[in-house]
Specification:
The structure is a single chain. The protein has about 325 residues and is α/β, with parallel strands linked by helices. The chain has helices at about 25-30, 35-60, 90-105, 125-145, 165-175, 180-185, 195-205, 215-220, 225-235, 265-280, 295-305; strands at about 5-10, 65-70, 110, 150-155, 185-190, 210-215, 245-250, 250-255, 255-260, 285-290. Helix content is about 45%, strand content about 15%. Strands 1-2-3-4-5-6-7-10 form an 8-stranded parallel β-barrel, surrounded by 4 helices. Strands 8-9 form a two-stranded antiparallel ribbon.
Length: about 325
């Protein structure tokens, strides 16, 4: 019987005042007179984000939610300054408390760097910023004590630019320029407009990195490989990792907004997907990308329970 673990992205809607993505704008910092005042403002924001992340993980553990995506905004303006007024290593204690929870409770956590983090870019400037941002995410995981590559960074292949084939080759070339400790964390996801699953599978095989299958993106941007065969091929990219495939699942907002995520998960669509995993005998960790966050997860579990399917969730 396949074992399925569920999770959600960044924010809990069931906790009060628990945003892990508090920010500080450059305008706010510019009004502060000294470097010390700017550092204090940044540190206070980072500490609150980390404390709220710990609250969210504690909430998840209490509800047996084992999969979670950290906010990429834990540290505002982290890569903006050449000489930052504040080093987030000063929050080592808070980072380590988060990591201890992850390790003690065997949670599957990850980051998904923002859309401006693009390895396929033809721009040297954007590539430099991309590498800086990937190093930043890697450093946060290290501060948490999460040094194993299973604590991953999820990336898309990026834009089409001059052509898909040239962009895919550029992605591979730039990938090989990353520090090995960073590149071994990267796992790749299909997108809803440009790079369908067959494109990403090609790059994953070439670079020998795992493939995070996004079911919603595949619905919007499909490929020619039959669905069960495609999943089987994707899951093979995880064979040497020692942990189950990671999957993203959401459903369209409505018939006119197919790419937009709905607030909740369509229960039957999810059960149909689980049927395929059962046929393949495949364990998986599934990230629900619904707008209602953990509320969507709780509703889905309630709906599944009412249907009494034969799955281990």
């Amino acid at each position: 019987m396949p074992r399925i673990r569920l999770g959600y992205v960044a924010m809990s809607l069931n906790l009060h005042d628990a945003s892990p993505s508090g920010t500080v704008t450059l305008k706010t910092l510019s009004k502060l007179d000294t470097k010390q005042a700017k550092a204090r403002k940044l540190k206070n924001t980072v500490v609150k984000n980390l404390v709220n992340t710990k609250r969210i993980l504690t909430h998840n553990i209490a509800h047996h939610i084992d999969v979670y995506r950290f906010s990429s905004k834990l540290v505002p303006l982290a890569t903006y300054f050449e000489e930052p007024p504040f080093s987030y290593s000063q929050c080592r204690t808070q980072f380590q408390e988060i990591g201890n929870l992850v390790l003690q409770h065997h949670l599957r956590v990850s980051f998904h760097p923002d859309h401006f983090t693009v390895l396929s870019t033809p721009s040297d400037e954007i590539l430099e910023k991309t590498i800086k941002d990937l190093n930043h995410h890697h450093n946060m995981l290290n501060l948490m004590g999460l040094t194993d590559k299973k604590y991953a960074l999820v990336l898309h292949l990026g834009g089409k630019y001059d052509s898909k084939e040239k962009a895919k080759q550029r992605f591979c070339d730039h990938f090989k320029r990353l520090p090995p400790a960073v590149s071994e964390r990267i796992i790749l996801e299909n997108d809803d407009k440009v790079y369908h699953a067959e494109d990403v599978l090609e790059v994953c095989r070439h670079l020998q990195v795992p493939f995070v299958f996004d079911a919603h993106h595949h619905f919007c941007n499909g490929c020619s490989i039959s669905f069960p065969k495609l999943l089987d091929d994707i899951f093979q990219t995880w064979d040497k990792t020692g942990f189950p495939p990671k999957i993203h699942f959401s459903t369209p907002k409505d018939g006119k907004n197919l790419r937009a995520h709905s607030n909740y998960i369509h229960t039957q669509s999810f059960l149909d997907f689980l049927d395929i995993l059962k046929e393949l005998g495949q364990d998986a960790d599934i990230m629900l990308e619904a707008k209602a966050k953990d509320s969507a997860l709780f509703r889905l579990l309630e709906n599944i329970g009412q249907k009494k399917p034969s799955f281990d969730i």
